[in-house]
Structures are given as C-alpha cells and as structure tokens.
C-alpha cells in the first residue's frame, strides 16, 4: 500500500472514532477502579510493585532468600514498601543495606483483585495513547493545507501524556480527590477535542438545519451540564471524606444527616436540566426536523443518569451506581458536543 493510499481522510476519521471510543473505555475503566476501591492496587508508577507484569500472589512480594533482585523491584517488609537499590543476589536473611524505603507514600497493602483491576486500567490507558498516536500520524496529511488539524491532533496526544503524568501524581498522593477530579476533566476535554476534529474533517450532514439562536442554546446546555458535573465532583469529594470518617458500612447515613448544600443543589439541578433538554429535543425533532436517534439517546441517558442518582440517594449506593453515574454523565457531555458541532456545521453550510 502506498503512502498516499494510507494517509487519507477516511483513515484519519476512522482513527478519530477509535480514539474517542478508547477514551470512553478509559473513563469506564477508571470508574470501575474507583467503584472497587482499586486505585492503590499498584502503589507505584509506571510499574506495579516494581514489575511490568504485577504479581498474582502476596508471597511474590515477600523477601525470598537466595533470590536475584533487580534495581527498582519492590517487596513488602514489616508492612512497608522496600525498593531494591541495585541488582543483587539476596543472602539467607534480609539485609537493610540492599533496600531503601518507598518515600512517595506509606501504602503497602497487596490485594490481587485491586492490583489487577488497576493494572488493566493502566493497560487501557496505554492503548489509548497508542491509538491517539496513530491518529496523530494520520493527521500529517493535513499539514500543508489545514495545519490546524495536525496541530490539534498533536495537542490531543500531548494531553494524553499529561493524563499519564496526572495518573502518576494521583497514585503518589494516595488518591487525592482534587487530582482525581482534574484527571476526569482532562479526559472530557480530550473527548471534546477529538469530536471537534472529527467534525472538521467529515462532510456536512444536511439533515441538520439550524439557526444561531438554536446553536447558542446547545452551547448553553453544555455549560449547564458542566456546572452539574462540577457540582457532582463536589458531592463525590464529600462522600470520599465520609468514607474516610465512617467507612463503607455506613452508606445509608452519608446523605441522610447533614447533607451538604451542594448535594441538594446537584439533586434539584438535575430536574432543571431534564426539562431544558426535553424542550431542546422536542424543538429539534418536531419543529426543525432533525434525525431522531441522537436526540432520543440524549434524553434516555439523562433519565438513566437521574435514576442512578436516585439509587445512590435512596437505596444506599448499590454496587456500580456511582461508576454508572459518572460514565453516563461523560457520555452525555460527548453527545451534547457532537450535536453542537452538527448545528455549527449546519449554520456554516
């Protein structure tokens, strides 16, 4: 296959779609990690307990006499992480001169399920970086005529690298809630950038008719949804604090007594968003005649998201409800941005 045949609009669009899909897969994997409490399953980064492929048994992290150790390998000794200073052959007893303490944090617990959940999350993140890199390479075809496409593709790749760095800092800070929120926001920004690039290189869909006022409404809805997501992150940080204070067996009283104002606002704001989006969808389908499927999905996702919120509030946080709530919100934002770009392109045409 010639270079010209490889670097085509179609291949770039395919790479963009795959990139968007994998980023959402990363968001889902991150939600599963959070749902299962596996964030510290790998207490170091980029390796996991000093291995590229993590251990499957705790005995693999215990000191073993007459065993060769390589620099950077990790063991758990006296409930603390120890890192091999250099390559050496262990003697019959533990020698502290061969090891140094891990200083990023003091977490030293091995749980095989948490470890492999976090490890799979990292593998999916690496896959995302690879797919975005391929997309970035395909974007080079636009360098002569549409430099913006290539430049923004490179920005997306750099954002993926920044995500990796943030992921390392999250682990080093023992899952700082603020950094977890930043981690999520950057992922959403990457999705938005990729959707923007997709619409810049695909043909205009003439089924979407629009006006400047309707387009501005779509932007307003995105802004309001972002506000709702921001409120949700504040609620989540409150729940993290409650978990630290009371533990998981006390979910039923997390939001029953002394619920913060941000939670009450977040709960009520969801109804307002549903009403506004219902009007938006009705206007788009009945009055303007837009194709139904994406708008139907928008309302369906809103209803399911509200339902997961109800489950968390009234059914004591059933397993998976928090993760589903987060993932659905991120999909809604992506779909809103997709429709907004369609409306923008309709105005241009």
From TrEMBL:
Pathway(s) annotated for this protein in UniProt: Porphyrin-containing compound metabolism
UniProt membrane topology term: Multi-pass membrane protein
Residue ranges of the TM segments: 12-33, 123-143, 150-171, 177-198, 219-239, 259-282, 294-315, 321-341
Protein keywords: Cell membrane, Disulfide bond, Heme biosynthesis, Iron, Membrane, Metal-binding, Oxidoreductase, Transmembrane, Transmembrane helix
Main localisation: membrane
Subcellular location: Membrane
Cytoplasm is among the record's keywords: no
InterPro entries the record matches: COX15/CtaA_fam, COX15/CtaA_HemeA_synthase
Entry's Gene Ontology molecular function annotations: metal ion binding; oxidoreductase activity
Pfam families tied to this protein: COX15-CtaA
GO biological-process terms attached to the record: heme A biosynthetic process
Name under which the protein is recorded: Heme A synthase
Highest taxon of the lineage: Bacteria
Any one cellular-component term (Gene Ontology): membrane
